[in-house]
Amino acid sequence: MLAAAAILAGCASGGSYPPAPPTASAAASYNYLVGPGDTLSISVWRNPELSAVVPVRPDGKVSAPLVDELLAQGKTSQEIARDVEKALGKYVRDPVVTVIVTNFVGSHSEQVRVVGEAVKPQALPFRHKMTVMDVLIASGGLTEFASGNKATIVRAAEGNKRYSVRLDDLVKRGDISANVEMLPGDVLIIPQGWF
Fold it and tell me: What's the burial of 62, exposed, middle or buried (CB within 10 Å: 0-12/13-18/19+)?
């Protein structure tokens, strides 16, 4: 909460930032990391009684048949599958496990947040190739008081570097060149216009 207030206060000072790059190079090597609130479908080949659909608890752990507690947060589905195979190896000969994330929420580092003058400010699960337009659609667009061309992206993946984005140009003028890619952990800040 304090970090968000500090970010908003910094934006209110009217500093100018470089424009956001149209594509996010770090997105090319992106692998989803499981977080609290996600739902995992764990399938054990030839052992349907050991298969289950389980939620990732707020502490980042999951429980499944014969697997009391396993840390899932911050891991890919493949890493979790290998951990489940290791845990089941005590009871089943050569288990083959597949883990599929069926409901995405993600940890804060896997979300894109939109704050300020969006109709529905919120945190959204990141999707590969997600753009600022996707974020605006999910958050209901800009309010009538938004100063969209003064919006900024705070990019956690680059040490909280700030970029300017032209939301009014994108939404009101249809300028697709203003539709930039987002990265996991980005915060889109939409300030209020005073006039």
Answer: buried
Q: How far is CA 163 from CA 3, 46, 68, 152, 158, in A?
A: 17, 51, 45, 5, 11
List, for residues 13-38, the tens digit of each pLDDT value.
Answer: 445 889 988 887 665 677 888 999 99
Long-range CB contacts (< 8 A, 24+ apart) of 1-4?
Answer: 4/115, 4/187
Measured in degrees and rounded to the nearest 5, phi and psi for residue 41 equal -100, 110
pTM assigned to the model? 0.76
124 half-sphere exposure, CB direction, 13 A CA radius: 25
Q: Domains (ranges, CATH) in the chain? A: 38-103 (3.30.1950.10), 111-190 (3.10.560.10)
12/182 Cα distance (integer angstroms): 22
Residue 9 has pLDDT above 80, yes or no: no
